[in-house]
Amino acid sequence: GMTTVGNCRYRQAIPRGGGGLLDIDTNYGFRKGFLPQGERKYTPRRQPTAQQVLIDTISEGPTTLFLIGVHTNIAVFLMSNLHLKKNVEHIYIMGGGVRSSNPTGCCAANDTTCIPGQCGDHGNMFSAYGTNPNAEFNMFGDPFAAYQVFHSGIPITLVPLDATNTIPITENFFKEFERQQSTYEAQYSFRSLKITRDTWFNDKFYTSFFMWDSFMAGIAVSIMKNGEKYNGDNDFAEMEYMNITKPRFNLLQGGVHSGHVQNGIDDPFCIVNGSTKGKCEDGYTKEVTGPEAVEVLVATKAKPSRDVNSPLEKEYFKHFLEVLNLPQHAGRFNISTQFPYYRETLYLPNFSNKTRGRPVIFDMDMSAGDFLSSFTFLRRL
């Protein structure tokens, strides 16, 4: 059912592409050709589960968690391992939108033909805009789990859309990134970013693609390096304490959920006749007062560059490129050094002294029956 330990809504939050829910290859097809080569192997049936990884790691002592996706795994861990919760010192989260104002989908002042999108709304779920203009993807995927995490009693620092909306990938940053690629990590990251830009769904890449997860990681590391001060002092973002919650479901009448839990992307309950904006707010990180409130340290906006002459507008841009290009942490991607006993060999068949049979053409739609037919034919040759 619609619970954290049941059928969570992660897949419902992924827009269908031409090839279905798994239409998009997030590695753009060059995993084997461009990712680090090494001795690591992936055997799915032998891999430890996410829960086992959490148990093994957190059992060893004080641990800090970075959450950059849906909260299901962490929520299940916290509910199932109460004796280990004391070892979780801090949770840094990228997600939600408290006071956010979506900068995408806005119309120019004199454009009378433009239909506004999510301009000014809290969320970033462009695929669910017609039902929920307030939801943020990571929270919408499993809001039950998010409630468990926020109300766990563990100190939380949140980097919501409030902050990430203030650090878009700008054209200046993109050009500077293109110039600074002295490590394999930088080359891989830029290549991925360039493909994303070139295949973006409209011509608004520089105003609608943001440094979401990496910005959270940068803020978290900076806070820890600065001694984890109470006010979250760091180099990259302004911080503020806020009282927020992920409300209990089916209990608040007239509140965020009005007694209804959104059932999928196209829930008809959420659709407002005569409007392009839906009324549901699942996945919205609400600022509240009272017993349901949790005090959370929240990033509000990115800090500008300290160098007024720099082409990089944000302080984090400069540090991102510096760290990515550190030579002492460069990976080793050379397959000849990783696999010294392998060589590339091209085998060409030699039919000079052989009598070849008649040509055969298979015209099939790749169904199971066609494969069986081709196997039967080939075995009889």
Automatic annotation (TrEMBL):
Listed GO MF terms: hydrolase activity, hydrolyzing N-glycosyl compounds
Signal peptide from the UniProt entry: none
UniProtKB keywords: Hydrolase
UniProt keyword annotation of Hydrolase present: yes
Boundaries of every Inosine/uridine-preferring nucleoside hydrolase domain copy: 40-221
PANTHER family linked to this entry: INOSINE-URIDINE PREFERRING NUCLEOSIDE HYDROLASE FAMILY PROTEIN, NUCLEOSIDE HYDROLASE 3-RELATED
Family of the protein in this entry: Belongs to the IUNH family.
Protein name per Swiss-Prot or TrEMBL: Pyrimidine-specific ribonucleoside hydrolase RihA
Organism: Rhynchospora pubera
